[in-house]
Specification:
Order of helices and strands: HEEHHHHHHHHHH
Strand content: under 5%
Distance between the termini: 50 Å
Number of domains: 2
Strand order of the largest sheet: 1-2
Radius of gyration: 21 Å
Number of helices: 11
CATH superfamily of the largest domain: Rhomboid-like
Largest sheet: 2 strands, antiparallel
Shape: elongated
Number of strands: 2
CATH topology of the largest domain: Rhomboid-like fold
Length: 276
């Protein structure tokens, strides 16, 4: 049986050739970035915006500025890149370097007293090559995922994926010390794979990219944490699966609960890793 009918809901109703995961908060129809207009809560399609404006009493002319989240400017992606660059500069300033490294790098043995480093580590990098490679990957995949999911969901995906990478390091390599955005970026790859698979797209090239990067992590003398890669990949795929299963506006609360469940599971694993 063909699943074209089910897949059609993943395309903008005004532009059938454009895939999107953002729904109008009033009518629930899928809309691409070009058709999105910011509302008090979420975004709305052009028809709902027009209906809403028509229902407002016109006392005097008003200027309406349309803002389309996740549109042509991937603000969250660029902000994350800027933060990583700023932190990298701080890492190379004498007198500041030691402070940033001590309280930013994730060392599993200090998880109980420095738990925030499970998040801050994803904004630190060990060398210019390290940050260039990671920021290039984020620059490529970040805008794609941000436009598909919207800014809030994208940021949640990124942070949870990075956290998942740290949890995996805690469980699988507790004697190591890690830093870098690789875990979060692998989470984006895992999420993109889940979404592509649901849409029926060609996953072969993406699988090759993921496999090659995972294999590189296992090569000796490269100081690459494959544990963070795997943890980020799994966490990102889990969050994307939740997003796909709770796309309707009426499922907003369920989506928050399920994403919270993913975070709770990671927290539980963290407690286990600390106690063991």
């Amino acid at each position: 049986m063909s699943d074209s009918a089910g897949r059609s809901s993943n395309y903008c109703y005004r532009h059938p050739d454009r895939q999107s995961f953002v729904l109008c908060q009033r009518c629930g129809r899928t809309i691409c970035p070009q058709c999105q207009t910011q509302a008090a809560v979420g975004v709305q399609c052009p028809e709902c915006v027009k209906e809403g404006r028509a229902s407002i009493p016109r006392r005097k002319p008003a200027i309406v500025t349309a803002f389309r989240p996740g549109g042509t400017q991937p603000v969250v992606t660029y902000t994350l890149i800027a933060l990583c660059v700023i932190v990298f500069i701080l890492q190379n300033i004498p007198g500041v370097r030691d402070y940033v490294t001590t309280f930013g790098v994730y060392r599993p043995v200090y998880t109980a007293i420095l738990p925030w480093t499970m998040i801050t580590a994803m904004f630190l990098h060990g060398s210019i090559i390290h940050i260039l490679l990671n920021m290039y990957s984020l620059f490529i995949f970040g805008p794609i995922m941000e436009r598909l999911l919207g800014r809030g969901r994208f940021l949640a995906l990124y942070l949870i994926s990075g956290f998942g990478g740290s949890v995996a390091v805690l469980l699988l390599a507790p004697a190591s010390a890690v830093l870098g955005a690789s875990g979060a970026i692998f989470g984006l790859l895992g999420a993109f794979f889940v979404i592509q698979r649901r849409l029926g797209g060609n996953n072969i090239q993406l699988l090759i990219v993921i496999a090659l990067n995972l294999v590189i992590g296992f090569l000796p003398n490269l100081n690459i944490s494959w544990q963070a890669h795997v943890g980020g990949l799994v966490a990102g795929a889990a969050v994307a699966f939740v997003f796909l299963r709770t796309r309707h506006p009426s499922q907003r609360m369920l989506q928050l609960v399920l994403v919270g469940g993913v975070v709770a599971a990671l927290l539980a694993l963290t407690v286990v890793g600390v106690l063991v």
